[in-house]
Amino acid sequence: MIRNYLKSAVRSTLKNKVFTIINVLGLAVGLAGSMLITRYVMHELSYDQDQLRKDRIFRVQLDRYSKGEVTTRWAAGAAGIGPELKNNFPEVEYYVRMCEDKQTFGHDDVAFKEEHIYYASEDFFKVFSFPLVKGVDSTVLREPHTMAVSKTFAKKYFGDEDPIGKMLRKNGVEEWVVTGVFEDVPGTSHMRFDALLSFSTYLTYFKNPDALNSFHWDGFMTYVQLYPNAKVSTLQAKLPAFVEKREGEGFKKYNAGMVFTLEPITRIHLFANNLMMDYGPNGNGKSVYFLAIIAAFILVIAWINYVNLATARSMERAREVGVRKVLGGLRSQLIWQFLLESFIINLMAFVLSLVLVRLLLPTFAALSGRNLDTSLFSNDVFLLGTVAVFILGVLSSGLYPAFVLSGFKPAAVLKGKLQGSPRGKFLRKGLVVFQFAASITLIVGTFTVYRQLSFMRNSDKGVNIDQTIIVRGPDINDSTYVNRFYAFHDDLTNYPEIVGVTASTSIPGRQPDWNAGGIRRIEETDESANEYRVLGIDQAFVPTFGLELIAGRNFSKEIKTDRAAVLFNESAIRQTGFKTPKEALNEQIFFWGDTFKIVGVLKDYRQESMKRNFEPLIFRNIPDAHTFYSIHIKTSNVPSVVTLAEEKFKSYFPGNPFQFFFMDDYYNQQYQADIQFGKVFGVFATLAIFIACMGLFGLSSYMVVQRTKEIGVRKVLGATVSQVIALLCKEFALLVAAAIVIAVPVSWLVMNNWLNEFANRISLSWWIFAVPGLLVMAIAWATISLHTFKAASANPVDALRYE
């Protein structure tokens, strides 16, 4: 019997080629789109899931307060919190403390400026599950001047030689012995490091190692591993009282505060954003959830299409159902037949969707900026989920049409008196309203995302980032450095294609690592002190980056007392309590035990992205700053200038690798994650709208078939083609209007919530909602017109022949 059902189902599927193609294509595109998004979402949720003790490992993050408000949020916080937690709380089994060290390493004639090097506690490999290829996890970082390196790092310096016991020199002087080699850190780890240096070495740099127990020295990434039965909530609840007991008196004096938070490592990638001194930009949990919702929308819209298209054919197949019932066919048998048809359609769509996913996955990975696994079913969860979605699709898209078609009365069908039920009409219209509402919401979302990104990227930054080459400064700390840099500066600026050269501790687009608290006007008490971000610059920084001086003057090499001078930006002036920039000129501030004079005020500029408000910045005159060299050029022949800069750099700073990048690329990396999200959102929003249009085709077909006789009567009574088209389109206009009523508040709530993540954001203007509504209306009318024009143009005699 099943064989007969299958034959009948296959015959019906092949007989109606147009509807079969539309159904298969719609479902395949919907399944492929949702599978691609699911791969992305699963990738984002997979960060740090490979850590064996992930449920017991937490990063200790720090929020610092001043006058009751959060001033800084740190991924790498207080130096002393790790040992203090271990010594005072029985819940803590191990702690790991890490500190970044960007230096030049070399072996023989090979040298590189390394960006991802950290000092790390000796218990690092006891806590984290990064497999050691060589070395013992309990001893690899125990002794001073020992280090563990990744396989790629080892190959870069030692080739195919065994690196164990080999020597690396830091900055050409300090010798380090390789005692361990670990597998490269996977892309799904929030941590990014290529080598680890023993923290015991870091302790030897200080005459007083107790300095590393301070709660006022930030820049140390701290992790704790709890005992198996310990509760993180219990430990978290104890921390405020502990901090108050240890630091309360000092906080009262400075009207300050600090709050430590134990963040599960599996949440860091998606939910620990915009923290100081993190490994790099993280993901965005809200964006991932938005994409997951789009995946669900696409899938549901595709299934709705199948239901609408199947019921649109109900009038065509009504006579078939009537004949089968008269010949003794049972309703259950008809249901099985229609479910088999649904199975065949879904199976064809499923196979096609797998082909599409396999073809599109590399392109989608590039679009999303993620290293996605291109094998289809390497993940068991994805495999089981895909099979479950297929079964759900067969049932959800097949059951309703099966019950509707199998429920027709033979007598009514064979007499040609079949009418759709009011309940069925309401359901079909409701499904289309959902499609319209989803489409409008997605279009609103696309408009909003692109407008916000355009607003952030194109607004006036107040700083010139164009045609600027950034060179990582040399690792030199001797007394000859300043004179060498001045010679390097003067040599380069003699060339007409080079406009300016400056040295600084930070550059635009980078969060200043120097955060200083306790700064106040000289006549004020400590209770009035505030926190500021500090940049060390030379006198060429302001003109090189085109910053606007609104009061006072810039630093001058000729004025010797300028070593004790500072520049403030407008935000710093306001925070310090000055009413105007001019009022601040020549005023003195207390800065970490020294006195500095304000000689100039800069207009606020975007040191960081527009996700953040302007922050109070202080610029210290530090001629020996050498973290970054910025070279502003004025030529179209950029490669020749890069070659020139490299020659001069190696001439003045031999032994230091020349590493450079372009300022505009670096600055715009702040928006890279948002740009990628916008692209992915836009592509799949368009895909959802396309699938929804196919659903419209189904419903309009159903309506035209249902109202064929009505159209014939109206034409006999004198109705024109345009009047008939307008009549049928009016009903869909009402559905679009209902969808707009639903979509506007929903899309406003969703996108307003997303925009609240940005300190500087666009407003949701009325046209952002009006244009998508009109666009969907136009698309709906165009789709409907394909059917209605044909019906309205037909001879009414054909419709009324049997009346």
From TrEMBL:
GO molecular-function term, one example from the UniProt record: transmembrane transporter activity
Residue ranges of every copy of the ABC3 transporter permease C-terminal domain listed in the record: 293-406, 683-796
Record's GO cellular component terms: plasma membrane
Record membrane topology: Multi-pass membrane protein
Keywords of the record: Cell membrane, Membrane, Transmembrane, Transmembrane helix
The keyword Transmembrane helix is annotated on this UniProt entry: yes
Keyword Transmembrane helix: yes
Alphabetized Pfam families for the sequence: FtsX, MacB_PCD
All residue ranges annotated as the MacB-like periplasmic core domain in the record: 20-240, 440-625
Localization annotation: Cell membrane
TM ranges: 21-42, 288-309, 334-361, 381-405, 426-450, 680-705, 732-751, 763-784
Domain of life: Bacteria
Protein name: ABC transporter permease
Biological source species: Chryseolinea soli
